[in-house]
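help with these tokens:
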Amino acid sequence: MSSYIHDTINYLKQSSPAQDEFYQAAEEVLSSLKPLLDRNPKYQKHNIIQRIVEPERQILFRVAWVDDRGNVQVNKGYRIEFNSAIGPYKGGLRFHPNVTAGTIKFLGFEQIFKNSLTGLAIGGAKGGSNFDPKGKSDNEIMRFCQSFMTELFRHIGATIDVPAGDIGVGGREIGYLYGQYKRLTGKYEGVLTGKGLNWGGSLVRTEATGYGAVYFAQNMLAERGDSLEGKVCTVSGSGNVSIYTIEKLYQVGAKPVTASDSNGMIHDKDGIDLNLLKRVKEVERARLTRYAEQRPNAVYTPVEDYPAGRNGIWGVPCQAAFPSATQNEVSEEDAAELLKNGCICISEGANMPSTAGAIDKFLASGIAYGPAKAANAGGVATSQLEMSQNASMLQWTFEEVDAKLQRIMANIYRTASATAKEFGAPGNLVLGANVAGFRKVADAMIDQGVV
């Protein structure tokens, strides 16, 4: 069976060249599936592996827009609709200069299994552009979003494909995208999630991914007779996921001491000043040097001063770590440093933040390790709760949505943990999450025939 997986990866390298992140994501999932594939030959009989690694639809388009100086700018737009076996396509839009087709494919592939694990009726997709919102005026961002949606609108719908936000796409961008969708279609429907609260959004959506990563960590530790209370925690990033991970960590009695952005990191040994971080990042949209200016005891380290081949965040001693910035931010060397310094819990808020080497070290150590597709599923789960509210034209309270989120994260943990035990690998939540997520989608694909 391992040769079947090996052949599939080689096939991807030929059919989808120069997409290393996608190969990494596919290999991580497929290598975990060997026990399931050995036990159930039906998946090979129906050629599920080769079917599931190919997106159902890949949309690549030009986005032309006019900047404030009157110059025409051109970016690439993507929407990769990966799998709709268990529900309409669901997954975020990422606006970042490093976005490529490979980035979107790896994210969309991961989304299939993450969405499956939530237990909700949503398929997997991802989209975005190499547009960089940083340094752009509101009017420039509006014009870009309108041009982006002028192409995308023909491919999405409330029961077809429901995009959300991701890196570079927050409430402002979702608002501009939704306005253009409504203008083009004349439909007021739940076609995007992450909307404003006064026009169809859901409470807890902004907080959901960060809160969910903390809830997942709590579930992992509870089974080991432990908790987050009193623990020093390191968090990377300073966007929504990071900010609300930090917020929830304080609420459960933990002490988050780090944050980072693309320029550097802060280590605040007294604990991150959450209100200051929110003001710097959500209001002023400034760099973390601004935080350090106003917090004398915080130590700021620029990226160029990080240890060679390492991320400075993971050198800060902690008991629990929450990688919440971007893919492959935790190297094998970083993992060794975390373990050496006494880290006993990793809960991933970003998508695929740990390299394959880092994952191997975490699993071998036996610590509580929550892989991204399980630990950060709270965001997309709450997006589906927003879809449910839109469909019924209701808005639930913060407490109602948060309670549902807590139940969903607990169920994801139980499912991944039980599946790992079923296949003789107790505690290996990578195997448990991958097998459980895959099995549900693969069985639905078999039921629906060769389509």
About this structure: The domain at 54-187 is CATH 3.40.50.10860 (Rossmann fold). The chain has a mean pLDDT of 96. Residues 219 and 225 are 10 Å apart (CA to CA).
